[in-house]
Amino acid sequence: MSNETKSIILYHRSYRKITRSLRVFLLQFLVIALPFSLSMVFCYPQITHTVCIFAQAVLVPFFSPDALRVIKLPYVVGNVFLIDLPSKYPSIFFSLVNSLVCLFLLVLLPVIRSAKHVFIFLIAVCFINLISSLYFIFFPYHFPYEAVDYSELYIKQQVSIWFFVPIIMGLSILPLPSTLTSKMITMLVTFFYSLIFGTVRYVVFLFILANASLLYMAVLFFVLGPLVDFIYIVGIYSVHVTMLSKKMRSDFTSWNWLY
Amino acid sequence: MELVILTLKGYLLFTIGIIVIFSVRHYIFTLNRIFGEQRISYQDIIDSDLKTISVLIPMHNEEKVASNILELLVHADYDKDKIEIIPINDFSKDKTREIIDTYAAQYPYIKPLHRYTGERGKPAALNEAIKKAFGEVIIVFDADYLPPKGILKNIAVCFNDPEVGAVMGRVIPINTRRNILTRLLDLERTGGYQVDQQARYNLRLMPQYGGTVGGFRRKKIDDLGGFNTKVLAEDTELTYRLTINGLKVLYANRAECYEEVPEKWHVRAQQIRRWSRGHNTVMFRYFFPLLLSPYLSFREKLDGMLLLLVYCVPIILLMGLFDSLALFFLGKMELFSSVFFLIFIGAYNNFGNFAPFYQVGTACLLDGAAQRILLLPFLFFNFFFNMWYIAEGFLDACIDTITWRKTKWQKTERFRTAHK
Hints:
The structure holds 2 protein chains of 2 kinds. Chain A is mainly α. Chain A is 64% helix and 8% strand.
């Protein structure tokens, strides 16, 4: 350490807090996050329609001319648009191969000691796929869904995700001492990422269900569904907090002590 | 069939309810740590008449770390007439005994306890050492901890308050940079101490004594009959025994101490399974005594109850996932269109990782950390990992409780010499 006396004695991390007011946070939440979220109630028919037009345009080359249709169904206060597409049921052989592969992995993966966090995730994937495969082996004609049912569920679920994204981001970011502009940018980025990601995933999922088979519906729904949405939500949040933290290292006015 | 479906739907709603309760709880903690008035411990009190202390260090095959902690403790800032250090060699087969004896030969206030008969394990070792100890206050460190110079004073001074039964300090991983696991555990610890424990202390709820980097009043543990050797989570049990009997657990966020976290996933799996097993055994034993305690306020009871349930909830969630699978194949997929997303919000945020992302992010911000916050999305992998091993620990606890099976203490593997 140099001989110079420090001009500022910084607060120790143990009891420092942020110079922000709970009232300001609540106000910002009511004025920004809540209206943002509620605006989805009025926008989702247009958004889902755009998503479907895009999805149809991408998927058309892989299907016969009349196979894909954009349909609309009533949902909450308006209509949601979704793609109606043909279903592909797995053959017994395909289901059998899938179940054997899953069974093999379920025996193999628990033995591996390294990277257990990844393998446990894969075990969950295999387990769900095994159940699905067995279902198609033993009750092939009783599977309760068509591809269009999944299409409907996906779109409705996406609407709820788009509704909740501003609320979640608002609750997690608005209490922080970053500028209002940066908070709004972060919320918008998350929302638009969610729109794009949700659309691309919709296309991919429909392609898989229509071309690979309905056997993968359970895995797509349980493992690669809303759970994955949280990765980018948390990811964008973490980028925001990292940038804020770096800024606060040199901004001593952001900190309070005890009260 | 209708009844089955109704039951499955009911269970799903129950799971959502639990998740919402815990999400709100952690969010209140986060807001309190950001906006609320912070309660300090007693570290600013300068008292020349500190209590006599006995520092207990349970050790089982700790040759990799034993000398580090002893070296630091002999240089601790505490009146040497009022301190004794008792390293407890608990059935060690490596060089732990020799290391302890070398220090004992140099420093008269190091009084080793070598145990090669009787019951093995931390609670039994502590019981035997407490009988031998002279301190009014017992301070415990696990062998892999690296206590800083002033921590003994910081902890001991809190016992001048007669209401305080136990004190818990803050645990910080020292081997954070080793790999992704240690970095994720660092995030978990940061959220758990900087926000969770401190907020619970601020809100006069129930901070938890963690069994290390902390101390307790010796007379009280004598009155309570020592530690229960059948319980793996002797720390959680002590928290509840003290609070149910009218004493407080004080959280001292300033009393920071470094520890070594597991560097391998299978070691972490064993550790978390053991914690879950011990914690859930305590839950079975203390759930109703907690609710009936005349010394606790309603919100202390509520927080204590939720704290007891922390390691029980992952199995509720795991069953919720099976429940969802059943509903899916029964053709009830439409049910998930609105509520399923909420399940995963709560699930991923709370129970897979102990601390939700907003709590960890806030804690890192308060700590002044930056780059490591970027790892928050990787907590995704802990979701299934923790859920699985906590569920295993829960089943262990159920079997322990039903069959009165004798628990066997499992030592956590150390890594220190591997990366000199």
